[in-house]
Amino acid sequence: MRFPARPATIPPQLPEWDPAWSRIVEAQSSDGTHAFHVLDTLPTLRAAGLEPEGTIVALHGNPTWSYLWRRLARETVDAARSGVRVWRLIAPDQLEMGFSERLAHEAMPTPKSAEVRRIRDRIADFDAVVRTLFAEAAGSADAAVTSATTTDTEATGQKHPIVTIGHDWGGVLSLGWAARNTDIVDAAISLNTAVHQPEDAPVPAPLRATLAGPMLPTATVATDWFLRVTLRLGDLDAKTRAAFRAPYATAQDRWAIGGFVADIPVDDNHASDPELQRIGEDIAAFDRPALLVWGPKDPVFVERYLRDLRQRLPQADVHRFETASHLVSEDHDGAGLVLDWLGARFDTTAHAHRDDEHSRADEHSRAEAAPAGVRADASTSATSDSAGVRPITAILDARSQDESIASVDFAQNPAQQITWRHLFEVTTSIANGLLDLGVRPGDRVSMLVPPGNNLTAALYACLKIGAVAVVADAGLGPRGMTRAITSADPQWIIGGLPGLALARAYGWPGRRISVSPLGPVRSRLFSVETSLTELSRTDHRAELPAPAAEADAAILFTSGSTGPAKGVRYTHADISALAAVLARVFDVREGTGLVAGFPPFALLGPAIGATSVTPDMSVTKPKTLTASAIADAIIAGRATMVFASPAAYRNVAATASALDADQRAACDRVELVLSAGAPVPLELMDSIAEVFPNASIHSPYGMTEGLLLTDIDRAGVAEADATGGLGVCVGRPIDGVELALAPIDANGGSADELVQGPQAQGRLGEFVVSAAHIKSGYDNLWRTTADSARDSLKGLNWHRTNDIGHIDDAGRVWLEGRLQHVVTTAAGPVGPGGLEALIDADAEVSRSAVVGIGPVGTQALVAVLDSEGTSLSPGLAPLELTARLREQAREAGFDLAAVLVAPQFPTDIRHNSKIDRSRLAVWADSVLAGGPVRARV
């Protein structure tokens, strides 16, 4: 079958495409002059009187074309018109792709066909087009590089940056070009791509099927099967899919799609394999800033390719869009992310809180502390001076000869007690054993061990050698844990049998270590190399490697109650600061007994010198903690301090009648009761006080990103309730925490400007905090990290909590929900928590959620009540109850449009208390429109 040549053409009118961007460029490549269709925003910019201050050169993959970059083109032009840096975008259609020239061919493409355009040719094509346009802009070929890299105003001395971006096979090609042109290239960005195919890993199934013999030309050229399947890997509407297919209507149009697939090296016998290997080596030598944008649901460019890229580009920032697939820029705002990153890198006015030199130094220190392939994101938090930070293991090491009880684990049967001396010996032996096994400082170790002595031993052994603990608790469920652990990409797994079984079933990364010896059969089944028991017999070395204060210590995953769970990065300095805060604020001394029914704090015992007791309960089901279990834990640890979640305390109060005399006496000796995970209402505090009559009851407010931020005691809650304030009062900031407010606008967004003091009082806003013990960033989420810490008030580094509310004139913090749950009524934005607190006070209501129905800015307030534990039936609430609640809302200044009763409330598993208002809003909207009442929420 013969395929004739065809000249380059201009695309037809397409959605989101500006015809002014299109041009035909003739460029001299490795085999002659060819005509390329190019997306170029320079004419549009100059028509607006703007000259480029930076150039982005973009390369699409297979089977897309420059249409892939239309949103980036629009964003760059719009941003330039708004007064920020003017970026020119150059995005050629690769030869024989998109609307570029088609060459003549005599047959269908095959991997050995001489007509297939090889990787080296495509890089040469890209180079030819880019340099031709640079020369054109400069007015001569000799001035091309000068014009491309400097502004027209020499007096400024400011560099004109060139940045590459690519996707799919365009990603590796553009990275290769960037690595070979570091004299003019300042940074590189890549979306899902691959550089190296490991010998011991199969080619991904979709690609393997396409490459199989006669399937290649059939799937890619004779039909548009490959094209259609690719376009299904993104969130595209029909018009957008049609636009991507526009250049590929016939077999002649699609020849290069097949040729591109045929040129994919799957082994070292392929003609392009040597060139791909050279490109990989070149990329590994590229030392300029880089950004890797990833869609983890891609069935072709799977996690091992991202891991390889991170090894080659350890300096790269990473941002994972957890719900995105192959066409990541179609699924999410990739263009906005790119411009944000470029702004942070190259604009002196954008992201003013980031001092560029400090940021780069911080990144290099993290890169040195992390192993190859485990690149920590650039942190926006200040790093700590190692000399001024007390090591996390300092108290444990100092008590190496102490025979008093350090930890009691009721998860063991019978309960297991270990002394400080034994804990020191075990953790030191395991640390040495891990080093002998090959664990290195910065290696990530996934902890699939329930809270208790085994987890404590594994964690502190890792901390002693600078390995990074990855903690994603079972409350996320198998799918949530898979997403979390895969994103953290640990090199090692330490697990009990349930954790190892999940790791095997879901293919979690990491070499395996079991808690206890499994025997030869099960060890092979779960790919286990050794056990903590075996490692605990390792001889001690004279000295273990000392981790730096700014090195990562742990990746703790959020609950996932408001979207995919995020990995929160804590350095050794951060955790040391947290331990110091806990000890200072709650007067925890060495020897204090602490019953920890709240897992994050069970692990802090050895760091603060407290005797930790893990009660008999299921960590994923807080309601399994009974009064008898907590009393037995108090007795075993001689505890005077108890920490648990509100859901756990409710069951403790409900089962208190089962306590015997000794257990009641133990509860009487408790001096301090802490509850975290959700605000604690006064009625629950009163119930807790009946179980612990001599204790001071506190409810500190915090989150995974900052575990202790404010505090309030029982008397403070009673005082706040008496004021009739809206929302839930969580007290005042603890010592060392700076609090500010970002006011909410009419569209429900929080302002860039922060306010404090009298300016913040009485206004609805997002709470923003700064403290030494808050997170250093989010793992593999560059944009999320930047967005959460983009402020510079007082020169501090801040964390945007996403929690909303107000500060009263007494300086108390009142929570009114989450930023994404703000209801934008015609009268102004409303935090749902304030109205919910009023509704929940009604005797017929167990709990409620207030949601907004309708367009932004004119939403109606709708109250949704939980039917569980009440006599209410799903559907419209009883008229009398509705009238009463609407009247109460009206007195508080709210117009409540409707009251509904839901069949169930969607909540997160970890706390069993955080309500998913987004799902309830969808359900409520459907019911009010006449949909089924008992539909799944």
Overview of this protein structure:
The chain is an alpha/beta fold and 937 residues long. Among the domains are: 246 residues, Alpha/Beta hydrolase fold, catalytic domain (Rossmann fold, 3-Layer(aba) Sandwich), CATH 3.40.50.1820; 94 residues, Luciferase, Domain 3 (Luciferase, domain 3, Roll), CATH 2.30.38.10; 105 residues, ANL, C-terminal domain (GMP Synthetase, Chain A, domain 3), CATH 3.30.300.30.
Characterize this entry briefly.
This protein is 35% helix and 19% strand.
As a percent range, the share of helical residues equals 25-40%
Name of the CATH architecture of the domain at 19-101 and 118-199 and 270-350: 3-Layer(aba) Sandwich
Strand percentage, roughly? 15-25%
Low-confidence stretches: 140-158, 349-386
- What's the CATH class of the domain at 19-101 and 118-199 and 270-350, please? Alpha Beta
Strand order of the largest sheet: 1-2-4-3-5-6-7-8
Structural class: alpha/beta
Please name the fourth-level CATH homologous superfamily of the domain at 19-101 and 118-199 and 270-350.
Alpha/Beta hydrolase fold, catalytic domain
How many beta-strand runs?
A: 36
Overall 3D form: globular
